[in-house]
Amino acid sequence: MYEPANVAERINKLLKEKNLQQKDMLMESGLNKNTISSMLSRGSMVKADTLAKIADFLSCSVDYLLGRTENPEIYRYEKTSQNGEKAP
Question: pTM of the prediction?
Fold first, then answer.
């Protein structure tokens, strides 16, 4: 199971590394100002769409925030045609 406190710590780590403010992330993502503190203090996990908004703001993968990978880079699946070219 994913621990909300661990997710919050990863979010805060990326914010610090990118020199971003938590309040700006929450405001720009349309999230409640208590989102991260609730994860830390009450162990409340955010919904999937909220986690996706945070990942988008931080330009990282949801898998990284959840601790499923140590690589914060976003993996983008590119569909290819049978002859190996990018599909439209």
Answer: 0.80
Domain count, the chain: 1
Task: Give the tokens for residue 48.
Answer: 């999937």
* Closest listed residue to residue 58, CA positions, set 10, 2, 6, 1: 10
The CATH number for 25's domain is 1.10.260.40
Note down pLDDT in tens along the chain; length 88 residues: 789 999 999 999 999 999 999 999 999 999 999 999 999 999 999 999 999 999 999 999 999 999 999 998 876 666 665 665 655 5
**Contact present, 87 and 81 (Cβ < 8 Å):** yes
Tokens of 27: 């405001």
